[in-house]
């Protein structure tokens, strides 16, 4: 096991390039199960989670090879059973459910279970495919779905906490091979859903309205192979924006889609950070003392829950009081305790965190608990005085490509050490 060591207090400078989106890659790779023809996916980030999805594809009969940032998927899909061992390590694996059901008219996928950010049920995924005509039973930790025929219909997919990204993905994929027209209402509008819809269309599907709350899928008889380039990772881009903000630095972030991080840019600007956007590049300038800013997370285009912990790390070092409310995963506050170990003053009240920003944090040994919480600890460590050691960094490696290397390129004193 490795730990990440950070000597805090360094200013960042220079340029970094954003990798392909992890959360777009996972459903796009799952969609290759819909065809037996070869598919080539470009701009795939080399991450623990993408490697897990590649393993899962292989366990379902595919050949999947990662060459540089390209994944070549070929060979027929031969199994409709997604095993507990792989699904339990990554919740995103559940997005093989829709394609397997569409392809075989049956699917058995292990229930992903809870994780540190909350319970994370799959009722909306199940509701969606039942709408298409699948019969479901849950037994021994697996969701089994079976349908003689999948038939297009109207499906309202909104849940208690709004739309669901992966439920939208699963229902979209299942509907591509159903007969007739499916309308998914209250669909997730996240850019990752747009990537998936575009890839499905490149495979010969007829998906319309992806990126809006109402998606229409006209079923087709079969899908063919396709080549596709994954879009940039907006959460990685946003994390680097917050790193620059917290260390009062100027950096240039290349290769991103600035429209995907508008909610974040708006909030950091309100705090006093300036940004200039030109094409696929954003220049961040953070010099003066920042102001506290309160926010609430929402589904896209609202402020993303996947940047909540990182924004909290910034507010922890911004004198004054701010309130961060979590409306997507109401229990996603595990990072508070670790930030407090570094001198932050944060307390939880229901679905909100009250942050009394301090002048500076101090380095400390801390524990990564989930992917985005780990990124928050990196931000805190970069801004803190002294040395921070982050243990269990495999969480970070699930979602950030070469973060230590990219940070060293910006002049940060960051390195990995064996535990
Ligand atoms: C995806 C992202 C994750 C991000 C999340 C919200 C991937 C691989 N993961 O996860 O990084 O944090 O979107 O932007 O893309 N819910 C239900 N019933 C369901 C499904 C979800 O109640 O059947 C609830 C969840 O518990 C949560 C909310 O809906 O409160 C949104 O979750 P959802 O959008 O489904 O998250 P994921 O798609 O799993």
The hetero compounds bound to this protein are:
uridine-diphosphate-N-acetylglucosamine
Give the helix proportion (percent range). 25-40%
Number of domains: 2
Query: End-to-end distance, in Å?
Result: 6 Å
Low confidence ranges: none
User: Could you name the CATH homologous superfamily of the largest domain?
Assistant: Enolpyruvate transferase domain
Helix/strand/pairing category? alpha/beta
CATH architecture label of the largest domain: Alpha-beta prism
CATH class of the largest domain: Alpha Beta
CATH topology of the largest domain: UDP-n-acetylglucosamine1-carboxyvinyl-transferase, Chain
Give average pLDDT, whole number.
96
Strands, count: 24
The coarse overall form would be globular
Largest sheet: 4 strands, mixed
Cα-based radius of gyration, to the nearest Å: 21 Å
Instruction: Please indicate the percent range of residues in DSSP E strands (runs of 2 or more).
Output: 25-35%
Strand order of the largest sheet: 22-23-1-24
Structural summary, described in words:
By secondary structure, the chain is an alpha/beta fold. It has 2 domains: 2-19 and 232-418, Enolpyruvate transferase domain (UDP-n-acetylglucosamine1-carboxyvinyl-transferase, Chain, Alpha-beta prism), CATH 3.65.10; 22-229, UDP-n-acetylglucosamine1-carboxyvinyl-transferase, Chain (Alpha-beta prism), CATH 3.65.10. Helix content is 31%, strand content 26%. The chain contains 14 helices and 24 strands. It has helices at 22-31, 48-59, 84-87, 97-104, 123-131, 165-176, 191-202, 234-246, 262-271, 308-316, 335-341, 371-383, 394-397, 403-409, and strands at residues 2-7, 13-17, 39-42, 63-67, 70-74, 81-82, 106-110, 135-139, 142-146, 154-156, 181-185, 206-208, 214-218, 227-229, 250-254, 274-278, 281-285, 295-296, 320-325, 345-349, 352-357, 365-367, 387-391, 413-418. Strands 22-23-1-24 form a 4-stranded mixed β-sheet, covered by helices on one side. Strand 16 and strand 17 (281-285) form a beta hairpin. It is globular and about 65 Å long. The mean pLDDT is 96. The chain binds uridine-diphosphate-N-acetylglucosamine.
């Amino acid at each position: 096991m490795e730990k990440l060591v950070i000597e805090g207090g360094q200013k960042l400078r220079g340029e970094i390039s954003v990798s392909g989106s992890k959360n777009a890659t996972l459903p796009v790779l799952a969609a290759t199960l819909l065809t037996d023809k070869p598919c080539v996916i470009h701009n795939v980030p080399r991450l623990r989670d993408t490697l897990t999805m590649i393993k899962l594809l292989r366990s379902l009969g595919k050949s999947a090879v990662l060459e540089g940032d390209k994944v070549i998927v070929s060979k027929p899909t031969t199994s409709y059973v997604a095993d507990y061992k792989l699904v339990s390590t990554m919740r995103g694996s559940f997005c093989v459910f829709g394609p397997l059901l569409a392809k075989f008219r049956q699917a058995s996928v292990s229930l992903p279970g809870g994780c540190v950010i909350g319970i994370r049920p799959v009722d909306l995924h199940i509701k969606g495919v039942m709408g298409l005509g699948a019969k479901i039973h849950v037994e021994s930790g697996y969701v089994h779905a079976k349908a003689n025929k999948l038939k297009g219909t109207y499906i309202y997919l909104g849940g208690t906490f709004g739309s669901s990204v992966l439920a939208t993905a699963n229902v979209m994929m299942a509907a591509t091979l159903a007969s007739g027209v499916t309308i998914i209402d209250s669909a997730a509008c996240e850019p990752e859903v747009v990537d998936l819809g575009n890839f499905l269309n490149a495979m010969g599907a007829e998906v319309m309205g992806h990126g809006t709350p109402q998606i229409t899928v006209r079923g087709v008889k079969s899908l063919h192979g396709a080549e596709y380039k994954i879009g940039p990772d907006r959460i990685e881009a946003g994390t680097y924006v917050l790193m620059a903000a917290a260390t009062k630095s100027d950096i240039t972030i290349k290769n991103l889609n600035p429209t995907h991080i508008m909610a974040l840019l708006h909030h950091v600007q309100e705090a006093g950070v300036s940004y200039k956007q030109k094409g696929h590049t954003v220049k961040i300038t953070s010099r003066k003392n920042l102001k506290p800013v309160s926010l609430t997370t929402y589904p896209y285009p609202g402020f993303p829950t996947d940047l909540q912990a990182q924004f909290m790390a910034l507010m922890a070092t911004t004198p004054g009081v701010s309130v961060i409310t979590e409306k997507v995963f109401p229990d996603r506050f595990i990072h508070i305790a670790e930030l407090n170990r570094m001198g932050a003053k944060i307390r939880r009240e229901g679905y909100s965190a009250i942050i009394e920003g301090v002048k500076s944090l101090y380095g400390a040994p801390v524990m990564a608990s989930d992917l985005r919480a780990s990124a928050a600890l990196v931000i805190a460590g970069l801004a803190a005085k002294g040395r921070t050691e982050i243990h269990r960094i495999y969480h970070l490696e699930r979602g950030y490509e070469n973060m230590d290397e990219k940070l060293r390129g910006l002049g940060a004193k960051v390195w990995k050490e064996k535990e």
